[in-house]
Predict the 3D structure of the following.
Amino acid sequence: MNMIEIQENAELFDRNTFHVAAKARYFVEISDIDSVNEFLASDLAAGNSLFILGGGSNVLFTGDFDGVILHPAIKGIDLVSEGVDHVVVRAGAGENWDDFVDYCVRNNWGGIENLSLIPGTTGASPVQNIGAYGVEVMDFIDTVEGLYIKERKPFKLKAKDCRFSYRNSIFKTELKGNVIITRVSYRLRKKPLFNTRYPDLEKELNNYDETTVANIRKAIITIRTNKLPDPAEQGNAGSFFKNPVVTKAQSESLKPFYPTMPEYNMKDGSVKLSAAWLIDQCGWKGRSCGKAATHKKQPLIIINRGGASGKEIYDCAQKIQKSVMNHFAIRLEMEVNIV
Ligand SMILES: Cc1cc2nc3c(=O)[nH]c(=O)nc-3n(C[C@H](O)[C@H](O)[C@H](O)COP(=O)(O)OP(=O)(O)OC[C@H]3O[C@@H](n4cnc5c(N)ncnc54)[C@H](O)[C@@H]3O)c2cc1C
């Protein structure tokens, strides 16, 4: 079996959940770690700009990509170690994230069940430190393995060295553009500690006799299916913007004008605001913007109404950013990776 597959002039329409049309000069799919190294040593890698693409559920292509799109399709899940109350389990970067969560839940290994149904690959899970329903993957990552692109050297980073924070990591900052993550290990609990504080989740769990990792997964799937647009029907990449984190003084100054403004006090004294609420206040819920629009239930999600170009979606995002800036003097940061 060929471990490196190269396609020229490849269509990316089905490889991004926004379903925007774009072409890559080369699309390279690699299914084992040794071949990643081999490919990095090739003229094709040396002579072209490189972008790593997982499931394409957090990227927006604003045009064709005149270089190599590298897709790590490395598979395999293995048990690295097992203790009395925990396991360390490792997944190839190309494993589908939700299939991996399902595998862990079936084994009754707890921790990541709240992250059920997030699209994409395990390899991308550390990049923006995926999170949902009160849980962030950084609390369950043990080690991230991969290769530095320029140096062509392997790396193995422990979670404490990944500089994880809210939707951020070393892979989105210092190491951006210079790493291929090949495998990620997660430390999960054999005696689960449930995280059910999130109000929607607490409410949904009332429909189940007991709280188990399997029932939390089911509840999360129900909530997400009812609330979020399915990218297969309406192209989108989930939340387009991050929730802004402001100083206490900044949030205090807004409070008299917006007494109902949701806010969440962070451990370091800063305050996280709701990007969805800010966008909604600017009149953007369910509003069209050419062939793009904000979702009618969740304005943080920009959807492709059909046939929108990446540029059109990007322009829409910029208009939203401008509205929020004019209204609240807060700059919304894009969560989606613009290519
Ligand atoms: C409907 C919907 C709901 C979503 N809900 C959530 C949510 O609740 N919480 C959340 O956090 N996110 C959410 N997302 C965003 C997205 O699912 C996650 O960011 C996911 O981790 C992206 O995985 P991916 O494989 O598709 O990555 P891609 O979109 O392909 O890539 C994302 C970034 O990671 C880099 N990357 C990917 N793989 C690798 C690798 N192996 N090595 C190095 N770099 C790599 C890429 O270069 C890019 O910069 C949602 C998206 C959608 C469409």
